[in-house]
Amino acid sequence: MNGEASALAPLLAEIANDAPRYYGQGRVNTSIPKLAAVDPNQFAIAVATLDGDVATAGSANVPFSIQSISKVFSLCLALSYVGEDLWDRVGRNPSGMRFNSLTRVELEKGRPANPFVNPGALVVADCLVERAATPIHTFVGYLRKFAKSARIGIDYDVARSELSMAFRNFAAASLLKDYGNLHGDPNGIVYAYTHFCAATMSCVELARAALPLANEGRDPATGQELLPPGRSRRINALMLTCGLYDAAGDFAYRVGLPAKSGVGGAIVAVVPNRMAISVWSPELDELGNSVAGFAALERLAREADLSVF
Ligand code: GLN
Q1: Considering 65, 68, 101, 161, which one is annotated as catalytic?
Q2: Separation of 284 CA from ligand 1 center, angstroms?
Q3: Among 43, 111, 274, 286, which residue's Cβ finds the most Cβ atoms within 10 Å?
Q4: How many CB atoms lie within 10 A of CB 307?
């Protein structure tokens, strides 16, 4: 198909060619031993436009660990179960501390700053564990529906590897439980959360999955309503302000798009009413965001004039 995304194909190719320039400037995530073994020198980018067109460069069909990007989809799913009541238990402001900070949980007395820091995502996971009979299976089905790809699954080795080192998340869940903000068993919730993070998607799948967020919650191909009216705008607002953790301000300045990153090295970004973009390159900066991915989005947004501002 030669649609809107294809017009960007030459720029995407240039960006992919340029990516090796950033290799060696960051470090692959080491908190998950299995991810530490990933080849750091990889790059992929995919753009999916509302007309159904997709353009890519690099290894755009290679699946990677989506990690914290799962938090966007688990949030959408939790909101479909509990609606706005979720916000009694989780805030909507940037946390100003690292995504796995325990100090924040104490300062906030168990009401996490937002759903994209780990404690917030644990509360979200609690909602799913409480309402879905098989939450991990339900979550994968939800991703598949958004991305329209039956290939998406969980990398159980990555999940097991993370669980062997997830002391901080177990501690956060215990603290949240102590504050009365988890209904289920804290260990079971960390287990489910870790498996959500271990979902694997390619750049093409991730860009497609985010497309409804660029289209007022509707599947652009069928018009099917995947999110109720108004919700995609709110999710985008949260991604813009909290999606890149402590780098959200810098990202808004340099890129100007709602986005969410994960320590697997991917970033997904939304251009409302136009397209969704995903990038993947495993080396991360100190704040946990992909170095080459951040730079790629900065260039794409600048040259294709995509900033929401
Ligand atoms: N699973 C990771 C964790 O809980 C996700 C972190 C991330 O991608 N920022 O630490």
Answers
A1: 68
A2: 12
A3: 43
A4: 14
6 is catalytic: no
Tell me which H or E stretch contains 129.
Answer: helix 118-131
Query: What pLDDT, in 10s, does the model give residues 203-241?
Result: 999 999 999 999 999 999 999 999 999 999 999 999 999
In degrees, to the nearest 5, what angle opens at C-alpha 195 toward C-alphas 214 and 54? 30
Query: Residue type at 33?
Result: P
Give the Cβ contact number of residue 224 at 10 Å.
11
Give residue 119's pLDDT: 96
> Which domains are assigned to the chain?
6-62+202-222+236-303 (3.40.710.10), 68-197 (3.40.710.10)
ipTM above 0.90, yes or no: yes
Among 194, 263, 280, 286, say which to mutate for ligand 1: greatest number of ligand atoms within 8 Å of CB: 263
Ligand 1 atom nearest to 118, measured from its CA: 4
| Other C-beta atoms lying within 10 Å of the C-beta of residue 302 | 13
Residue 278 pLDDT more than 90?
A: yes
Q: Output the six-digit token pair for 22.
A: 């950033």
pLDDT above 70 covers a percentage of the chain that reads 100
Asked if pLDDT for residue 100 goes beyond 90, the answer is no
In short, whether 99's Cβ falls inside 6 Å of ligand 1 is: yes
225 SS3 class: strand
| Measured CA distances, 230 to 7, 182, 235, 266 (Å) | 30, 27, 9, 26
The alpha carbon torsion through 232, 67, 267, 124 (nearest 10 deg) reads 20
Are 126 and 74 in contact by the 8 Å Cβ rule? The answer is no
pLDDT at 67 over 80: yes
The structure tokens listed for 134 are: 């098989």
269 contacts 255 by C-beta, under 8 angstroms? yes
